[in-house]
Amino acid sequence: MLQVIAVNNKFPGPTINVTTNNQVVVNVWNNLDEGALLNWNGIQMRTNSWQDGVLGTNCPIPPGKNWTYRFQVKDQIGSFFYFPSLGLQRAAGGFGSFIVTNRPLIPIPFPMPDGDIEIFIGDWYNQNHTSIRRDLDAGKTLGVPDGVLINGKGPYRYNQTLVPAGIQFPTIRVDPGKTYRIRVHNVGISTSLNFRIQNHPLKLVETEGSYTQQQIYNDFDIHVGQSYSFLVTMDQNATSEFYIVASAVLVDGPLWERVTGVGILQYSNLRGSASGPLPPGPDDRWYKSRSMNQALSVRTNGSASGARPNPQGSFRYGQINVTDFYLIESRPLLKINGSLRSTLNNISFRNPSMPIRLADLNKVKGVYKTDFPSHTTGRQPSLGVQLVNATYKGFIEVVLQNNDTAIHSFHLDGYSFFMVGMGYGNWAEDQRGSYNRWDGISRSTTQVYPGAWTAIQISLDNAGAWNFRSQNLDRWYQGEETYFLILNPEKTNKTEMSPPENVRYCGALESRNQESSSAGFSAHAELLVTILAALLVAILTL
């Protein structure tokens, strides 16, 4: 029997489905035996980092207590997910889909699908998240996962040796001749996965809030923390079921064979069960550029409207002067003060004693420093709460250099950035000549291949404190993160909201808390739809 973190007694949790510019109110009750927060992966929280749900923006919700998130999905569309952000809790579940649909007046750039299907893929360890934490604290590494889950279930028994009998597997039922929008999220711990559906091409149409140029793939690599939308047409002869596969990518060794999730695509006029070998995935042990070339092929659909009626391509990022530059390097794990830690520019992040902006507004000194280095320096690796002191309304270029031996995914809360380039080797200034300055995809999570670099550019127009982290949960837990502190020198609540009425305090300010179950509704009414959801986060035994 496995224990998972469920939301409203569901694993994965319920879908939150909203429309652009809706106000969203989510009351989270924490029935875990430790503090919890929910992060809204890719939701930008415009001017409102108070709702972001990480330790640099929010105090944890204590066990047995609740807290109400209240935010607007301003000028966004697309496929996202929520998850518990503290202490590797996502390794046990607690995630669910967050869909933002277009307003009726703005058409989507493809025919309306006949249905919408959510698929969560992710590597899985049978030990719970607290046990994984203890192992990492003791200096152990994750090792090879026990498998891959698809929608919270184990693999179909495609192989009598690798897959034991009696495992519940996912089945997705469809009607022949119909086209479905399939949203796929990698909510795993640390493994990049190749996704494919037997005999069914995948037409990519959207990723993390940006409509893409529509290209067809037989299989697609989805890295930790990433979300993609595909159109899939059910045009096959339903003589049998079809395999849905998510398997580890860019790995080697016989133990990784078990790191394969298998579900079933089942037509409503089915006449037979799935059998035979799985559809093959890429053999990129020998052709590692395949995955990078595929990533570079994902480009913005410049003629499509996004959340607003103007085309996505109207923001000509390639013509904007860069105002600041950071080269951020990740390296293999190393010991700091006797503990195994991960670093960015030789700094291993230590969680602040209270949220960053809460410390600012209450004039609490010494919580953090704004001296995160723009390059790896000769300094000794150390623990610290160093933030990137970014310039409001600036246009920053960040090069992520991965000198580790594994793929890393990186995410920035509060923003989408333009992914303008990737390459193997060490980045140098002449690499800018290879940048895509016209239709690079705008997204919030990007992969960085081992021994390679990824360049992103960001228009810094959202004030607040925004978490920049590795999406690989082990590396995040071990210190691979920082925050971008972006402040408007002109103090105004139009560019950064004041703390909500239900703000939680912790650290030196904890005595200010006033417990309440109603939690934080503004007194004034707004001419916007409000989506209400109550999420109960608790342990569920499968």
UniProtKB/TrEMBL annotation:
<dbReference type="Pfam" id="PF00394">
    <property type="entry name" value="Cu-oxidase"/>
</dbReference>
<feature type="domain" description="Plastocyanin-like">
    <location>
        <begin position="3"/>
        <end position="103"/>
    </location>
</feature>
<feature type="domain" description="Plastocyanin-like">
    <location>
        <begin position="355"/>
        <end position="488"/>
    </location>
</feature>
<feature type="domain" description="Plastocyanin-like">
    <location>
        <begin position="119"/>
        <end position="269"/>
    </location>
</feature>
<dbReference type="InterPro" id="IPR001117">
    <property type="entry name" value="Cu-oxidase_2nd"/>
</dbReference>
<protein>
    <recommendedName>
        <fullName>Monocopper oxidase-like protein SKU5</fullName>
    </recommendedName>
</protein>
<comment type="similarity">
    <text>Belongs to the multicopper oxidase family.</text>
</comment>
<dbReference type="GO" id="GO:0005886">
    <property type="term" value="C:plasma membrane"/>
</dbReference>
<dbReference type="InterPro" id="IPR011706">
    <property type="entry name" value="Cu-oxidase_C"/>
</dbReference>
<dbReference type="InterPro" id="IPR011707">
    <property type="entry name" value="Cu-oxidase-like_N"/>
</dbReference>
<dbReference type="GO" id="GO:0016491">
    <property type="term" value="F:oxidoreductase activity"/>
</dbReference>
<dbReference type="Pfam" id="PF07732">
    <property type="entry name" value="Cu-oxidase_3"/>
</dbReference>
<dbReference type="GO" id="GO:0005507">
    <property type="term" value="F:copper ion binding"/>
</dbReference>
<dbReference type="InterPro" id="IPR008972">
    <property type="entry name" value="Cupredoxin"/>
</dbReference>
<keyword id="KW-0325">Glycoprotein</keyword>
<dbReference type="InterPro" id="IPR045087">
    <property type="entry name" value="Cu-oxidase_fam"/>
</dbReference>
<dbReference type="Pfam" id="PF07731">
    <property type="entry name" value="Cu-oxidase_2"/>
</dbReference>
